[in-house]
Design goal:
The chain is flat. By secondary structure, the protein is mainly alpha-helical.
Length: 661
């Protein structure tokens, strides 16, 4: 075939693809186009303009072709391509990329100190470096009317400001706006933020430092010794406030130490009644999470207005951990009706009634609870040896009459390109404007495209809780089966982990810097990769589903080998291996009590979600799942050997799922 003929054929193919795109949004881009785009996008970010220009013709009418223009502009941002940015905005006025380009331009203008131009783009309201640069630009261009108030607002923080603000702060100070009153006010903010270095720096600028500033610094440096020293300090107006704030910090981190000091603190410092009660509540609460012996009396002795839902819950947990079932019942009766009717406390009411011989009352509550498709509903059904109430109510999308908006089409292509942040930006520009039926059709579309995270969030948005096939994707199934090829972990367990960790968002990054489907922290991922003889070059690789699952499953295998108990494995995966070790001493052997009495709220919720997820996935995969108690043998507390719970007959059953009440 001649080159000319080949070129003509390419044009024909491209034209056909464009026509297919117009007639069928489901065929937005071919695999070849997507592969080419990913390659050219990376090259565009590197500034390889000629190569991108030569090869992009094959992407004619490709929905996100203009992202190459964006990437090329970004690569040239140091040249301050204002005209290119303006042209891009004119051509794509509704693109979320315009905001990104403006931000990149502002950052570069600030770095280059192009103050006159900077003011053309900044609207006066921002944070961090860009706001600091704005203040400096105003000074440079002598636009100082009203400027001192803006600078003071930026300066007046308990956190350290960026270095880029120093020039503006210096000008403000030279204009005579800084004084001891403002310095003392900011020192208080620094104290509230526990920023000792900032407080020490601000102290050096004071003309006359009152004694309380030294007190504040000493209390930040070492709260315990600082409070002990405070008993000898001369009285100052600010001292009770300093003691209140420091006591609140100690109540959270060292409740037992504060409890020992508390009588002297109250005798030595004139704390407001409200502040005393806040300290006592916080001290009691955090002592309870440590199961300090004094915590139950501390909670019980609180004023009634301080016994909020958290305190009442921890009173119940204290007695659960101690196995004092009559006291559990009495504590539950102290809860408000709103709190008590929650599934969690209904379950514990039934358990306590059963344990205290009130079987008929317990059964009535368990009967009602067993109709719930969640952790507590499954447990209630296990206690009664009843089927699970699990009903599929699938939705039927009307795809024939649905044409996704252009931004949604772009979002789908960006999803395939791995540009997930950009994909979500495009999605958000038009998703809310869609009607209910359109959103259902869109969910069906992105499910076929493999964007499972958006399917899940759309079902939640629409309240379609019984559309289990969409809410619990069985995705990357072959990869998971290949990796989870032993009993522990099983494929449904891996899917349960992914559902809870990332909701199937392959690019998820947590506040703790955990990445990907199974939310792996980079040091852990590198250690596991080394164990498997693999190289992990950067964190972005953890967003590749196959690699993330391989490493995550191996980590699960390691945890099963270490703990040999599903609940301890789940706890370790969420809170760390050290916590599963710590919580294997002195806690209840009963798995439901053990979970309820974990000190960490996040981990309590995490484990219950994993257990309900794995039960639902077991149902979706095998039709007849194992009972949830199969995953809940007794806890190996103090070296005891786990055994089936509540008994062997129940825990080893497969259970029928029914829609009948």
């Amino acid at each position: 075939m001649s080159h000319k003929l080949s070129h003509s054929l390419t044009l024909v193919i491209t034209t056909v693809m464009c026509l297919l795109w117009v007639s069928s949004p489901l065929m937005a881009g071919s695999d070849a186009e997507r592969k080419l785009f990913r390659s050219l996008y990376a090259k565009a970010l590197q500034g390889k303009t000629q190569e991108v220009t030569q090869k992009r013709a094959a992407l004619n009418n490709y929905p996100i072709d203009h992202y190459l223009d964006y990437a090329l502009i970004r690569s040239q941002i140091k040249t301050l391509p204002e005209q290119a940015i303006a042209d891009f905005k004119k051509k794509h006025p509704d693109s979320p990329l315009n905001k990104q380009l403006k931000r990149h331009l502002l950052n570069e203008l600030g770095r280059q100190k192009q103050w006159s131009t900077y003011l053309n783009y900044h609207n006066g309201f921002d944070q961090g470096n860009r706001q600091c640069w704005y203040l400096r630009a105003r000074i440079n261009q002598q636009q100082t009317q009203g400027l001192p108030a803006l600078i003071q607002a930026m300066w007046m923080s308990g956190l350290s400001a960026p270095d880029s603000c120093n020039a503006a702060f210096k000008w403000w100070q030279q204009q005579g706006h800084l004084n001891d009153k403002l310095l003392l006010k900011r020192i208080k903010l620094a104290f509230e933020s526990n920023n000792i270095s900032l407080a020490q720096h601000l102290k050096t600028q004071l003309n006359n430092a009152p004694h309380w500033v030294d007190y504040a610094i000493e209390l930040m440096r070492n709260p315990k010794t600082g409070i002990e020293s405070s008993f000898q300090w001369p009285s100052e107006a600010e001292l009770p406030w300093l003691i209140f704030k420091t006591s609140m910090r100690m109540a959270k981190k060292q409740p037992a130490s504060l409890y020992q000091m508390w009588p002297n603190i109250k005798a030595s410092h004139a704390l407001e009644e409200e502040h005393r009660h806040q300290i006592e509540r916080t001290m009691a609460l955090f002592a309870a999470t440590d199961y300090e012996p004094f915590s139950i009396n501390a909670m019980q002795q609180l004023p009634s207005n301080m016994k909020d839902d958290q305190i009442l819950a921890w009173i119940v947990r204290y007695y659960l951990n101690a196995g004092q079932w009559h006291s559990v019942l009495d504590a539950l009766k102290q809860m408000s009706l709103r709190q008590l009717t929650q599934d969690r406390w209904q379950y514990w009411t039934a358990r306590a009634l059963a344990k205290t011989g009130k079987q008929k009352e317990a059964k009535k509550i368990f009967e009602a609870l067993s109709l719930k498709t969640n952790y507590y509903g499954f447990l209630a059904a296990d206690h009664l040896r009843k089927p699970y109430h699990m009903c599929k109510k699938p939705v039927t999308p009307n795809l024939a009459n649905f044409t996704p908006p252009p931004a949604i089409v772009r979002a789908i292509e960006l999803h395939h390109a791995g540009l997930m942040t950009a994909a979500r930006r495009e999605w958000n520009t038009q998703y809310k404007a869609l009607g209910r039926d359109e959103k259902i059709a869109l969910a069906a579309l992105v499910k076929d495209e493999g964007w499972y995270a958006k399917v899940i969030t759309t079902m939640a948005d629409l309240g379609l809780w019984h559309n289990y096939d969409w809410r619990y994707p069985i995705a990357h199934e072959q990869i998971i089966k290949n990796e989870a090829n032993s009993n522990n972990p099983m494929p449904q367990w891996v899917m349960a982990i992914i559902k809870q960790e990332s909701a199937w968002a392959k690019d998820a990054v947590s506040h703790a810097n955990a990445h990907g489907l199974m939310q792996l922290i980079p040091p852990t991922a590198k250690s596991i990769a080394k164990q498997l003889g693999l190289n992990l070059n950067n964190n972005r690789e953890l967003h590749q589903p196959a690699l993330n699952i391989k490493l995550g499953v191996q980590y699960q295998k390691n945890l099963y080998k270490q703990f040999n108990h599903p609940i301890l494995v789940a706890a370790a995966y969420n809170a760390g291996e050290g916590k599963s070790i710590d919580w294997s001493t002195g806690f209840s052997q009963s798995p439901d009590i053990w979970i309820e009495t974990i000190p960490y709220k996040e981990t309590r919720g995490y484990i219950t979600k994993i257990l309900s997820n794995v039960t639902i996935y077991d149902w979706l995969i095998n039709q007849q799942p194992k009972r949830i108690s199969n995953w809940m043998p007794t806890m190996p507390i103090d070296g005891t050997v786990p055994r089936p719970w509540p008994n062997k007959l129940v825990s080893q059953q497969q259970v029928n799922a029914t829609c009948a009440p």
